[in-house]
Amino acid sequence: MTTPVAERLTSLVAALRAHGIRVGTGETVDAAQAMAALGFEDRELLREGLAATLLHGIAQRPVFDPVFDLYFPRGVGAPEPGTADRDDLRDRLAAALAANDEALLARLAAEAVDGFGGYGSAPGSDGWSSYQTLDRVRPQTLLARVRADVGARNGSSGFADRLLDDEIRRRIEAFRGLVATEARRRVAERRDRDQIARRAVAPTADRVDFLFAGKDRLAELRRTVQPLARKLATRLAARRRRAARGSIDLRRTLRGSLSTGGVPMRPVLRRRRPARPELVLLCDVSGSVSGFSDFTMLLVQALHDQFSKVRVFAFVNRIDEVTGLLEHGAADAAGLGARIQAEATLTGWHGSSDYGVALGEFAERHGDAVGPRTTVFVLGDARTNMSDPNLAAVRLITERARRVHWLNPEQRSLWGTGDSAAPEYAELVEMHECRNVRQLGALVGRLLPI
Amino acid sequence: MFTSVDDVSVRLAETGYLASPSVATTVFLADRLGKPLLVEGPAGVGKTELAKAVAEIAGAELVRLQCYEGVDESRALYEWNHAKQLLRISAGRDETWDETRTDIFSEEFLLTRPLLTAIRGDEPKVLLIDETDKADVEVEGLLLEVLSDFQVTVPELGTITATRRPFVVLTSNASRELSEALRRRCLFLHIGFPEEELERRIVRLKVPGLDAALAESVVRVVGALRAMDLRKVPSVAETIDWARTLLALGADSLDETVVRATLGVLLKHQDDVLKAAAKLDLDAL
Ligand SMILES: Nc1ncnc2c1ncn2[C@@H]1O[C@H](COP(=O)(O)OP(=O)(O)OP(=O)(O)O)[C@@H](O)[C@H]1O
Ligand SMILES: [Mg+2]
C-alpha cells in the first residue's frame, strides 16, 4: 500500500476515535488488509469493507459514513462551470427523481452545490453551504411535477399509485442528504480535513443532546434503552454485592476474638439489609424536554427489577401519576409521550410548565409516595416561565426522602439564564447536568441507590 | 474461496441468495482475512440463509449451533456419554481401574457438539452460531476462546486444534448487546431491509410465477409499510410470504379488497393492521 493511502487510513481512524468510536490497532490492520484486497476502483465496496473491519455496531454507522466521505471523496471532478441555470437544473432534477436514478441524483447534488452553494470570495471567509444550495434549488417544491412525470411515464399502476407521494418525498429527502454530503466534502477539500471531521459530523447517538435530538435520533436513542439498562443492572448488582460485604463490624469482631485470647483474628463484616430501595421519578414532560423525560422513564422502567417499588409522576403545570401507563406501554416506546399527554392530567388552565404549582401539588397530594427509603429523581430544565419556583415544596420533599437528585438536560452554563430557576433549586437538591445518554448512563450508575 | 466481490455475488446468486454489495463485500473479506463474520439485523432479512448459501458454495458441511437461553458447554462443545461409559464399566470386569478409566475417556465415549465438530476433521465446514444474542453471557466467553485459537481443550484427551479453520458466521437480532471482546474478533455486517430493486429480484426469484408488475407493486407496498411507525414492520420473509399468497389467490394486480384481505400476512399485530389500513386508505376493516 502506498504511503499516502496508509496515512489516509490512519487519519480516518483518528477521526473515528475523536467521535468516540473505539478502534483498536487490530481493526486498523484488518482495515488495511481489506483495502489491499478490495482495491480502490469501487468506492462503495471500499466503504463497506472499511465499515466491516472498523465498526462493531450499526449505531456507529451514521458517524462512519460522513467521515468516510471526507477521507475518500467521490471522484466527481468539477462539473462544467458557469452552467448555473436554476430552472435547467430543476428540470433535470425532476426527471432524475421521477426515474429514481440514484447515480444521476448524486451527480446533480454535486452540480447543485457547485452552482448554488458557494458563498464569499475572500479566502478564509468563503465556503460551501448545503443550506444555501437547498434554499435556492428548493427540491421539495418539485413534488407535483415529479408526480406528473411518473404518471406520464408509467401510466397508472393501480393500487400502488397512492404510495407515490410518500415515495417521492423519501427520494427528495435522500437528495437533500446528498447535497449535505457534497457541501461537507467541498469544505473539507479547502480547509483542514481533520479539523472538519471533528466538527462537522453528527455525534454517535449516546452523545446527542436530548434537547436537540430530532425524531430519528430519538427513535435511535430509544433503541439504546435496553442495552443501557442491562449494563446498568450489571453494574448495580456488582455495587450491591460489594455493599453487602459491607464494613467491619467492630463489636462482633472483638467478641469473636475472645477465643483467640483477644487478638482479633477474624474480622466480622457487617451485613446489610438486602431490602431494595424505592424510587420516585418526577418528570417534566412539557414539549421542551420531553425527549429527555421519555428516555429516562423508559430506562427506569427497564430497571424496575432493581427496586422494591418504582413510581413515576409526570407534570407540565399539574402532576399526575403515570406508573401504570409506563408498565403497559413498554412495548410502544415511541407512543409513550403521546399516551401520557392523552391520559394523564398534566395541564390546568394554561399549557406551559409551572414547576412551582406541579411540585406543590405533588407534595400535597402524593406526599405519601416519599418515605425514608425513597430516592427521588426530578427530571427537567427548571424553566418555570417566570412563576414562583415554590422552594418550600422542594424542601418538604427533601426532608421526607432519603435522597433527592435533579437531572437537568440543559448545559450548566445556561442554568439561571432567562426563566431558569435551576440555581435556586440546586441550593436545595443536588442538581446534575445530564445532556445525553452517555452522561445519563454515568449518573444513573453512580447515583441510583442500592 | 472467492476471486473477487463480484465472484461472491455471482456464486451466492447461483445458490438462490441475492446479496447486496455490503453483504458480498463482507463475505469476501471474511474469507480473505479468515475472520468470523458477525451478522446483525432484524428478523427475516436472510442472516441464517446467508450462512447456508456460503456452505453450499464451499461444498462445506454446515455445522449449526442454535443458541437459546441456557445453552451451555455440554450443548455447545462436548459431553461425555455417561450411559455408555457406565455400560462399559460394568462390562469390563477383569481389568484394572486405570485401564478402564483410560478407555472410557476416549474418543469412543465423546459426544461432540457443534463447536467441537466444527474444528475437527479435514473437510471444509461452515460454522453457524445462530441467534448468539439468545445465549447467556457465559457462553460468549466460550465462543471467544474457541474463535481466538480454534482450539479446544478436553482435559481427559488433551488439546484439539483445528487443522482446517471453518468459515464462521454468528448471527444476532441484537436483543442483547454482545460483548466488545467478541465483536472485536469478528467482521461486522449489518443486513437491513434490501433496496427496492434488490427486493424485487428476490421476490421474482423466490416466487417465479408472479407477474413482474405485481412484484413491483408488492415491494412498493412493503416499502410504504416499513416507513410507517409500526410495532413490527414486514421483513423479506413476509414479502415473500405475501407474494406467494397473492399468487395462490390468483391475484394479477393489487386492489383494496385483496390488500385488505391479505394484510395479515405482512403484519402480525392487529393494531398495526388497523393503522396500516388507515394509512393506505383501505376502507374500514
Ligand atoms: N437476499 C436474499 N436472497 C434470497 N432470499 C432471501 C434473501 N433475504 C432473505 N431471503 C429469504 O427470506 C427468508 C428469511 O431468511 P432467514 O431465515 O435467513 O432470516 P433471518 O435473518 O435469519 O431471520 P431470523 O432473525 O428470524 O432468524 C428466507 O426464506 C430467505 O430465503
Ligand atoms: Mg435466522
Characterise this structure:
- The complex is a heterodimer of chains A (450) and B (285).
- By secondary structure, chain A is an alpha/beta fold.
- Chain A has three domains: 3-71; 86-202, no CATH class; 225-245 and 274-447, von Willebrand factor, type A domain (Rossmann fold, 3-Layer(aba) Sandwich), CATH 3.40.50.410.
- Helix content of chain A is 53%, strand content 8%.
- Chain A has helices at 3-18, 25-38, 43-54, 61-71, 86-99, 102-116, 130-137, 143-154, 164-190, 193-199, 215-222, 225-245, 250-256, 290-302, 323-329, 336-343, 355-365, 391-400, 422-428, 437-447, and strands at residues 118-119, 127-128, 278-284, 309-315, 319-321, 374-379, 403-408, 430-433.
- In chain A, the strands form two sheets. A six-stranded mixed β-sheet of chain A has the order 5-4-3-6-7-8, sandwiched between helices.
- In chain A, helix 2 (25-38) runs antiparallel to helix 3 (43-54), helix 5 (86-99) runs antiparallel to helix 6 and helix 9 crosses helix 10.
- The model of chain A has no long low-confidence stretch (mean pLDDT 81).
- In chain B, a hairpin with a 3-residue loop joins strand 6 (151-154) and strand 7 (158-161).
- Chain B is elongated, with a radius of gyration of 24 Å.
- Chain B contains 14 helices and nine strands.
- Chain B has helices spanning 5-14, 21-33, 47-58, 73-76, 82-91, 97-104, 114-119, 137-149, 180-185, 196-206, 212-226, 236-249, 256-266, 270-279; strands at 37-40, 61-66, 78-80, 110-112, 125-130, 151-154, 158-161, 167-172, 187-190.
- With 285 residues, chain B is α/β, with parallel strands linked by helices.
- Chain B has a five-stranded parallel β-sheet with strand order 2-5-8-1-9. A two-stranded antiparallel ribbon of chain B has the order 3-4.
- The mean pLDDT of chain B is 92.
- In chain B, helix 1 packs across helix 2, helix 10 packs across helix 11 and helix 10 (196-206) packs across helix 12.
- Chains A and B meet through helix 2, helix 3, helix 9 and helix 12 of A and helix 2, helix 9, strand 9 and helix 11 of B.
